[in-house]
Fold:
Amino acid sequence: MEPGFQSERAQLPRNMIENSMFEEEPDVVDLAKEPRLHPLEPDEVEYEPRSSRLLVRGLGEHDLEDDEEDYESSARLLGMSFMNRSSNHRNNMAGVYNQEPSGGLCSLSSARTVLVGAFVVVIILSIAMVVYFLPKCTFTKEGCHKKNTTLTFIYPLDANGQVFPWPKVRLPTAVVPVHYDLTLRPNLTTMSFTGSLQISLLVKEDTNNITLHSFGLKITKATITSKGSSQPKDVQILEYLPHRQIAIKLDSMLLNGETRILNLEYSANLSDGFSGFYKSSYQDKNKTRILAATQFEPTSARNAFPCFDEPAFKATFSIKIIREADHISLSNTQKDVTTPVANGLFQDTFAKSVKMSTYLVAFIVADLKNVSQETASGTLVSVYAVPDKMDQMHYALESAVKLLKFYEDFFNISYPLNKLDLVAIPDFEAGAMENWGLITFREITLLYKEETASILDKQTISIVIAHELAHQWFGNLVTMEWWNDLWLNEGFATFMEYFSLEKVFPELEVADRFLTTRFKVMEKDSMNSSHPLSTSVKIAEEIEEMFDSISYEKGASILLMLKGFLGETVFQKGIERYLNEHKYGNTKTEDLWNSITEVKNVDLNVKEMMNTWTLQTGFPMVTVKLDTTANKIHLCQERFLRMSISQDPSSSPDSSYLWHIPLTYITSSCSNYTQSKCIKTWLLKNKTDIIYLKEPNVTWVKFNLHMNGYYIVHYEESTSKKLLGLLKNNRLVFSDHDRAAFINNAFILASAGKITVKQALSMTKYMKNESSTAPISEALIQLGHIHGLVQKRGMLQLAGRVKKYIFDIFGDLINDQTWSNNGSLSERQLRSTLLDVACDYKYGDCVQKAQELFTNWEITQNMSDLPSDLTTTIYSVGACEVKGWEFVLRVYNSLKSETEKSKMLRAMAKSSNAQQLIWLMHESLHHSIIRTQELPFILATASRTLAGYLPAWDFVKENWDDLVEKFHLGSFPIQVIIVKTTSQFSTKNHESEVQTFFDSLMDKGSQLRAVQEALEIIRLNIQWMDKNLKNLEVWL
Ligand SMILES: [Zn+2]
Structure:
């Protein structure tokens, strides 16, 4: 899946509980997780004597593995607050590595660190003593019980009070699905559907129940048939809502190796949201048309048909859809036959699928039109959209055909289906979804209108298509076993977006975009609220939270580093081997490393190295000290955290963190990047290390070339000064990405107090001569962030000085820009960034020029008169006036180009008129002109403005229930909303207001990782202001 608007792939997550209370098995395991849905009355509770087994009355005994119990969920139900959620999320691998004695280079910075470390040790010892001497306490409904109290369970009961035969959130594996025969009849008038389903089952272990997923479906008939018997037998269905499961209790045992067919008839309403089988609408010649589409990932297939809705339960599917004459239907496979059925309806029968996971099943019923092209290898590729957008489908078709060929060659495995449809859906929550053979997209990520769209729109469309096509192999053919390894899917697909585009569409210059995403995710990953790439998850909300920038961008970043380390050939061969070894199966992260290790023909354990990146939270800071006298480099690594110890004692760098870092570097003696002999490598596996240089008289070193490694570098002061001197005098010694990394690393180090803000700002001084997009964009982001913080503290004079500083550096470059579309993508992107900043800050004649173009457009109403790269800026300036804002809204309402509409929406959401912003938010929530899917974008954009940041936060508080009903709790849009509407706060009052609000939500959001992240960002802002405000006032 491609999350929503890409530039906002925000910073968010969830975690494992690290509450010592859970180290022991709790005495009460309450399996009801959502009391809101299914309150357990005291008299419903069934207590049984406890042994090490869970006794389920009347159903025999079920062994329970301790680690599979739902402690976390149980504790939530009991209303326990999760302490230490922001503590370092250590994992099992801590301590695996031999520790070098600390006190190396990293700790040189202060003796204070040593003192603090000793203090922390004393505190830990004290807590351990207290815990040891306290009477052991465990939680039950009555509170604290002594250890030897009779232990009890609360068993799950279905809605009718009957005992549900399966207690866990994860399904049993005793019975597995082999094949689904599904016939659906969606009714787009009544907004409902009926389904008829036969699931062929194979018994893998003796059992007396069949348990599977189902949610929101009304099952009207259920029978079971033994293989060879034509007599289906009625069975009773039990439903346990908190786990979204149904079960059948059988009179007799099913024995290993037996087969059964489960027949189910059911009905349900089409969903109002964006998941399951949901409805979408659009205007066609002033008439509202309805369509129905699906979005199942991660856990919503169960909302459309009863199924074993976990990625490892792969099966084949035969789907039939009954539709009206003026619709078409689409599914994963090609349509085999259409037959008329009763009442003037038609039944489309689709070919049997390959073996696949339920979250990849898809179907659509709509009046859509398509363009198609057959690839050289015989796959029919089609792009579908609503009829009046037919003219916008050709670019996507061309991209998809080229990229499909690239992937077939790269993976050396043919695309396994004979058709591939790419469908633009008017209402769509994510950016796109990789359903096998039937990829669905938001209209903006697929449709391209040549006359008005910008070059960056083209880049976005190709990137999203590249991402989803990569999934057809990585994700669909080989699937992660469970959602804890989601990064395997998403990190890889994100990596391939950039990798494939660099090969297939070099003119789209995606490298800068990849660099920016690396910077962004590292910002998030340098917080306590981050999480390891592979993180344990169980319930739906936790699974939703895995769809964050850690899984996507950090995953992609460590693959980029690995590819650089192994070389492209070994990397490719490893991937090819992995896909071949596991096709149609499921994997864990280590399977990928094993496949690559088998290819790498030297003594290197890829798994050992990569585990340090996937199992540990965060990333290392490598401290570099060049000893010019002895001609050697001292290296030291530690986890990089932005929060200082005084703000949060748990931020103390944990010395047990250790990474295997494939370092790259150049030295002053051989500094030409283009010569491979100059590029040196070093695998840093210990906390400290020394590189003895072979070349003589080295005066400077530069590590992490092109910022391709997932670590930041902290140079000791004399080296730092040398590098700054080089930037000033001969910046082209370094690549543009290295120059961007100098800027980024300086500001991120300053935010953690490793260097002063003055030193970070000094780094930008060289930039009067800078002309490359990557470093300039990064500097503008960092300086813009400072401006935003200061401005929202009401310090407008100081904010003005920040602006002046920006234009002292970049003023000349801005003055040189023309209002045109000329140049390479990179030049065009730079122009658009610079003029946007200039007009936002009212620099020079920017506003006047933009206003002239806007006024002219109002008169001619001809969009192609405007330079397409700069329309966002022009609309924003025009929409400053009430008349202009209303004009933009009118055009928005009638326009067919989603890319252009998005720019108009951005312009409207940047308004300085709070009333307009509040109107936009409500309008989008209730969707008459602006779709609800745009709401996170509106809130994020408005939150950046002085007029909008407080109304946006108020809106979130007032409409929280509606927001989590539209977007799932934990979902990417909810993550964006939480973090973006609070990230401008920098005062204790705001911190406590945000904390109080989310605490009050209880099970409707208080436990979300995004909340922890939001609070941490506010604390970081407070920390930054406390530390730097005075310096800033002096320095600027
Ligand atoms: Zn994806």
Observations:
- Residues 1009-1035 form the longest helix (27 residues).
